[in-house]
Structures are given as C-alpha cells and as structure tokens.
Task: inverse folding
C-alpha cells in the first residue's frame, strides 16, 4: 500500500452511506429558490380554475346562475354538478369506500364545500367570475356536535344514503352513522373490569386540526385531444394511486395518464387523497382542450381539504391496587365530517387505532369505534401519523397518567411497571398487532437519568408547597410520554388501497462509469429521500451516495409504489431499495468472479468492491464492475447492471420513544413556559442521524402547535372560526421551544437494514408529553383531565375553574 492508497476509513467515509450525517442534496436547489413546484409549472395557453364555495354548513341548493359570471372578461366556463353529470363525474369514490360530491349536487354539507368551478384566462378573472355566480340556498339545521349526531331527531345529512342500512364497513345504526368497528375480546375485558381493584374512566378528546403544509394542494391538468393522453402535475404524496384513481373514475386508459409530482412543499397527509379540484381541472382541460391550473389558497386549504383527528375517546383502565394493568376498554366517537374520506388502508376504517394498548402489557382489551357524519369538511388524514396512531397514543398516554393520579403513583414508575418486557418480543398485543422489537425500559431509564427525573419531581414538590404558601403564582408540570408507533403500511396480508397491496418499489440502474439512478415509488415532501435513499445504496453496493441520483414522483419512470405518508417510506421503500441493491450486488459478484478468475464463493465483500478471500490484493471495485457489466460479462449473462424490487413487508415496524416536557404555567395569565423538552427516539438502524434530528424537530414543533393551540373550530352554525393563520396557531421560531434529542437503537428484525420509520414519531409522542405536562401541573389543584388545546386562555380558565383565585 503506497501513501496514496486510501485507508479503509477513507473508503468508507467517501461512500457517505448509512449512519453518515450527509448534508441534504435537495437543499442545494431549495435554499437557492430553484425548487420546481406545481405553481412553477406554466404551460402555453394555460387556464386557471377556482371554486365558488358554500357559505353555509348545511343548505339546499335551489339554483345556480352563471349568466353574469360568463360576462366577466376572461371567464370561459362555469362548471357545476349538472355539467359533471354529463360525464358521470358529479360524485367521486373516496378511499374509505364512501362517495363524495365533486360539486354540490342538490345540497351543501359543509362550509367551504365546492359548488361551482369557474375557468378563466387568469386567476384574477376566475376570482371575479366567482363573485358573479349567483347561488340560491335554503339553509338547513347544521349538525356540528358529534355527540348529537345519532340523536333520533338529528338532521339527515346524507340524503343519497337514504334507506342504506350498511356501508363499506358493515351495518349502519342511524342515518348519520357510517360504521362501527370493534376489535378485541369484549367478554374477557368486561370480566377484567368486574374483578378490578381500581378502575379509571375518562372522555379524552383529540380535537380537529389540520396539516396545513406550507404549499397548499394544487394541480395542472393538460389533456392532449390528439393522443387522448392526460398529464397531471400535482402535489401528490402518492402519484401512482392518483393515476389509478383517475383511470378508474375518468375511464381514461391508465397508460395514457401521466402523473408527475414535482417538488412538494410539505404534505403531512394533506396530499394523499383526491380532491374536487383535481377532477374539475381535469374535466376543464378535457372540455377546453387547454391546460388548466388549480391552486388552493390558505383559507380553502384550512377549511375544505382534509382535516385531521376529531376523535372523542372514552378510555377505561382496570388495574390492581399496586398499579398492574389488567384491562383496557375504549370507545371512540369519530367525527368524519360530511363524507367518509379518511385516507386509511381499505380494511381499517379507524386506521391502526387498535395500537391503543400502547407500550403496555394489557392482558385483555376491547375497542369500538363509531364513525359518524357531521356538517364539517371531510378528511381524517394521517397528519404526520400512521392512520390514527396519534389519537391512540394520546388516548393511552393520558389514560395512564390519570390512572397514576388515582393510584397516587409516579407516572414514570407506572409505565415502567407495565411496559412490554424485552423478552416478550415479538409481542402479540391484545388488540391484534405483533410488535417486532423494543427495549422500552432502557429508553425510559435513559430519559429519566438524562433529565434527572427524580430531581425534577423534588423541585415540583417544593414549587407546589411554595404555591400553597402563596409565595409563587406559577405551577410546574412534568409531562411524561412513552409511545409505541406502528409504521410501514404495509403487508399485503392486511393493507391495501383500492385493492392494491401496499408494497413499495425501487429500480436501480448503474451506468458504465460507476454512477447510477434509483427510481423509487415514494415521494418526498421534505423528508430528504434524495439524500437518504442514496445512502442505503452506497452502503449496500459501495458506490458513493454522491454518484447515485434518486428520482421519485413520475409515474412514467418510477416503478409502481404506494407513496409517502405515515412514515411508511423507510420501512417499505427503504427495504425495496436495499433488496434491489442486493440483486445488483449478486450480479456484480458473478461478474467479479469471472474477471478475477475465481469461484464466486471465493469472493468477499469489502466496503466498495469484492476481494478474493485470503488474497487481499486481488480486488475489483464496484466502479470497475460497472464498466465490466457493459463489455465483459460472463458467457451467457445479459449485459448491464440494473435491478428492480417490489417489497411486500412481512410486518409493520414499531418505533418507540420516551419524551418529557417540563413546563411552568402562570395561573393568573395562563401563560406557559416550556422549560425543557427532551425526546428520545428509537427508530432502529439510523440511516442519516442529521435528517432524523430534523424530522424530530419538525414533528415536535407540530406537536407543540397541536397541543398548545392549533385547532379547526366551528361555531354552532358550522362556520369555521379558525380558517386562517390569524386564528389557526402556527408557531414561529419565537414560540417554539428548544428541543433536546437522543436515541437508542433497537433494529427491526424483519427489515433488511433493520430500520423503522421516524417521521411521525415526534408528533405521536410529543402531543401527549405537552398535554400531560399541563395536566400534571394542574393535578395537585384537583383536576383530572383538561381537554386540549392548552392555549393561554384555556389555562387561565382552568385555573379559574379550580378556584385558584382568592375571592
Ligand atoms: O415516509 P416518510 O419519508 O415520511 O418517513 P420516514 O420513513 O420516517 O423517513 C423520513 C426521513 O428520515 C427519510 O429521509 C428517511 O430516510 C430518514 N430516516 C432515517 O434516516 N433513518 C431511519 N431509521 C428512519 C428514517
């Protein structure tokens, strides 16, 4: 070895493979304003469409008059449900097995519902046209309170379902009932409650909120009449699914539909489903023969496309006197709004809410979920959440704190006592999941030691004593949260969308000079896939990450994939990437054996190539193998070096984490101070620690927003009162606390590289940590459970209700 020969460490470092804090390659264009978003797509002759929306939450549409609108200069067409009926597109199927009006057909069912689509030469003309469309409404009583939805005299919302006693998920009990979903053993659970020494019961609401990505939902549709082809650029988290949906509902052959998701400015579940804007823009392009752009504004995004949560969960825990849990019973009232448009895998009407047993070894459990219609926007998307996992984690983490309070036990000790133990993995939960791996006690203890949990509790006791003596007006809360996630939808045995199994895919093509391209069925919306996918390939086949281009989002070039949401990309596509790389490596080994004139079995892998066992100087680098693949492959072998993998995961992955929030609240003003927030995440093998940290920072900021103020709120008439960023809490750097992050590593035993997802973990674990901190702060004053969001005013009101102010 001469001085110029790189060391093993240098060769390893050059790859920038897994474990490397590789800088995000996509940021080179993003930080220079050179991203290419849907709104950057500008085609010759492009028209613009915009919606007339309902001011009412519930009303009959008596008439729509477009005469004056069509006189506005630049306005070319006004599309209504009647127009769409001529092409059988007035209603569209939802991912949840329901149907949804594309444009108001006889009735409107929520404020902001799409009533007519005005097409014009520019956005301003379209907007002027909207103001001239005259719609005559007859207001009807609005149903806003989910707890009144199934009253005998509740207004009938969905007249199209009259007489239908069953829906996509079984029987319906009432005209506003969508489904009942039950899991677990009811008899055994009821018996556990009858025998229990201690029980708790609490109605824990997770309010309606919204993903509100920086870039709203939008598309450009361009129909080529000559070729009969439709090209759609859109903010799609799952472009292939959109292609299939369009083929099914517009009856255009799937190979004549080209869906392109360019750069996307955040998705968070908001961009999974199909919206009326996409259908109307496509129809308008087919009708006019011109490209049509639809771009939602902020108020439209917040009020009409895809809310999240709105789960009202009555949780009961049975336990022994010394805090061993013996049973869990949960009933959920799930407010789905006017149409059931939840973006869940088909067989899961309440998503994976049956992860609600959390990290605890409940011997028995029973869950029932009632989905209901109200006069609110449809949606129920996985906002940084794997299909209702966030709601489930919040439910169990609040319930465990409430039990600790009743038992007079420390909440961390109660958790440690009930955790699934390391030797129990793979662990079968009472509600049907098989947790792949975990070491909860180590994670929890690391968190407790790092923050000096015992010391904090002592400080809290002193603070409470001082408060009682009247020496301070601040109360202190410690919010402990320990979550188990379920991500990586998913195995074909139980997950599909529209009947398509939820596998994911990767195609890798290596070029002669040792560089290559990887095309993946996922679609990054800020998660940094272009960076991390190349890192997996670098570690697997020894080609530097910088020499691999990652491409996603073009249905013509990427293999079919189910897209990016619910932290499924690493568990499913990440595995497909590793498997495709391993196919390449297997062929590379045959080529290397031929070139080195040895048997394949005589070769061993060494960082970036093969070497002959026992003869370390006899090597062939992967770069040289790439060249050989195009000129001197073994006789009978096809030239080239490429592979494709469609990966059907055998199981989900189960990341977990231990979080704590330390908070002081001033009882006279309700103002809170987040003194410390520590988040320990275990997502198995870590591909890029820096990206993971970024994901955790972002998710914690969203969790902070949701727990401490963010809410889509309606008044009793169904008006959205938080429909803009003036009212919908969007934290800035000023409010956002400092985040401390940490980790343990418990690889997934079934994933090729041992990785689990991470993107949504901080939202899942963060919300209960914040809420538990507020609840813990107030608990010594006699409160059991305070509903979120915990903004200043509500904190002040709680203090008032607890009689903190002297008369
Ligand atoms: O599906 P989505 O991309 O939203 O979520 P994810 O699979 O949790 O991945 C988010 C980002 O974190 C991706 O760039 C992953 O490659 C990265 N990640 C990682 O570096 N190591 C992990 N164990 C999990 C995710």
Result:
């Amino acid at each position: 070895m001469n001085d110029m020969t790189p060391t093993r460490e240098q060769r390893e470092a050059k790859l920038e493979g897994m474990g490397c804090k590789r800088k995000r390659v996509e940021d080179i264009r993003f930080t220079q304003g050179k991203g290419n978003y849907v709104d950057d797509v500008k085609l010759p002759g492009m028209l613009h469409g915009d919606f007339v929306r309902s001011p009412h939450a519930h009303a009959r549409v008596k008439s729509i008059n477009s005469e004056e609108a069509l006189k506005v200069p630049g306005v070319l067409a006004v599309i209504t449900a009647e127009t769409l009926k001529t092409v059988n597109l007035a209603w569209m199927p939802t991912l949840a097995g329901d149907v949804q009006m594309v444009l108001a057909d006889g009735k409107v069912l929520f404020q902001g519902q799409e009533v007519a689509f005005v097409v014009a030469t520019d956005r301003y003309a379209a907007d002027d046209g909207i103001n001239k469309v005259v719609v005559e409404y007859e207001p009807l009583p609005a149903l806003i309170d989910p707890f009144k939805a199934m009253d005998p005299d509740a207004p009938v919302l969905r007249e199209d379902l009259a007489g239908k006693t069953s829906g996509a998920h079984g029987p319906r009990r009432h005209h506003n009932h969508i489904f009942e979903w039950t899991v677990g053993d009811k008899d055994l659970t009821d018996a556990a409650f009858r025998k229990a020494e201690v029980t708790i019961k609490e109605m824990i609401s997770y309010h309606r909120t919204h993903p509100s990505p920086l870039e709203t939902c939008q598309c450009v549709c361009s129909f080529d009449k000559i070729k009969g082809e439709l090209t759609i650029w859109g903010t799609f988290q799952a472009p292939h699914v959109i292609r299939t949906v369009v083929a099914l509902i517009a009856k255009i052959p799937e190979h004549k539909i080209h869906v392109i998701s360019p750069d996307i400015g955040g998705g968070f579940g908001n961009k999974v489903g199909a919206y009326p804007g996409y259908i109307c823009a496509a129809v308008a392009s087919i009708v006019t023969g011109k490209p049509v752009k639809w771009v939602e504004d902020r108020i439209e995004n917040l009020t009409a496309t895809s809310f999240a949560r709105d789960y009202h969960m009555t949780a009961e825990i049975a336990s022994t006197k010394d805090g061993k849990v013996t049973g869990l019973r949960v009933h959920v009232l799930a407010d789905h709004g006017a149409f059931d448009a939840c973006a869940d895998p088909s067989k899961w009407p309440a998503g994976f809410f049956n992860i609600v047993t959390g990290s605890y070894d409940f011997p028995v459990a029973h869950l029932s979920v009632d989905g209901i219609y109200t006069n609110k926007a449809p949606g129920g998307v996985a906002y940084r959440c794997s299909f209702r996992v966030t709601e489930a984690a919040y439910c169990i983490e609040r319930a465990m704190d409430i039990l600790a309070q009743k038992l007079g036990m420390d909440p961390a000790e109660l958790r440690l006592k009930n955790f699934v133990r390391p030797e129990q993995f793979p662990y079968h939960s009472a509600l049907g999941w098989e947790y792949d791996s975990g070491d909860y006690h180590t994670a929890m203890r690391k968190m407790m030691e790092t923050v000096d949990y015992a010391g904090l509790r002592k400080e809290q006791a002193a603070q409470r004593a001082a408060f009682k003596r009247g020496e301070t007006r601040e109360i202190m809360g410690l919010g402990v949260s320990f979550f188990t996630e379920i991500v990586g939808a998913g195995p074909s045995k139980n997950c599909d969308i529209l009947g398509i199994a939820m596998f994911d895919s990767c195609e890798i093509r290596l070029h002669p000079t040792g560089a290559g391209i990887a095309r993946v069925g996922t679609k990054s919306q800020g998660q940094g896939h272009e960076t991390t996918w190349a890192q997996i390939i670098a570690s697997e086949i020894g080609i530097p990450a910088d020499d691999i281009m990652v491409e996603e989002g073009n249905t013509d070039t990427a293999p079919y994939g189910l897209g990016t949401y619910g932290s499924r990309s690493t568990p499913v596509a990440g595995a497909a990437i590793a498997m495709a790389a391993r196919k390449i490596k297997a062929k590379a080994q045959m080529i290397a054996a031929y070139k080195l004139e040895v048997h394949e079995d005589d070769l061993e892998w060494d960082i970036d190539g093969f070497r002959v066992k026992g003869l370390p100087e006899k090597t062939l680098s992967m770069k040289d193998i790439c060249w050989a693949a195009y000129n001197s492959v073994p006789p009978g072998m096809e030239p080239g070096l490429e592979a494709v993998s469609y990966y059907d995961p055998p199981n989900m992955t189960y990341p977990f984490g231990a979080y704590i929030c330390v908070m002081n609240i001033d009882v006279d003003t309700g103002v809170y101070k987040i003194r410390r927030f520590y988040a320990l995440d275990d997502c198995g093998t870590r591909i890029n620690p820096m990206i993971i940290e970024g994901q955790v920072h972002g998710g914690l900021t969203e969790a902070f927003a949701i727990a401490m103020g963010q809410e889509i709120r309606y008044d009793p008439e169904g008006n959205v009162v938080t429909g803009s960023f003036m009212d919908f809490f969007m934290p800035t750097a000023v409010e956002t606390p400092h985040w401390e992050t940490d980790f343990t590593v418990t690889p997934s035993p079934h994933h090729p590289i041992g990785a689990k997802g991470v993107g949504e973990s901080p939202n899942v674990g963060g919300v209960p940590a914040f809420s538990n901190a507020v609840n813990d702060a107030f608990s010594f004053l006699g409160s059991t459970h305070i509903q979120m969001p915990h903004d200043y005013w509500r904190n002040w009101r709680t203090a008032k209700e607890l009689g903190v102010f002297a008369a």
Observations:
- The mean pLDDT is 96.
- The longest helix spans residues 569-596.
- The pocket of cytidine-5'-diphosphate is lined by residues 527-529, 532, 564, 567-570, 683-688, 691-692, 695, 755-759 (CB under 6 Å).
- The two ends are 86 Å apart (CA to CA).
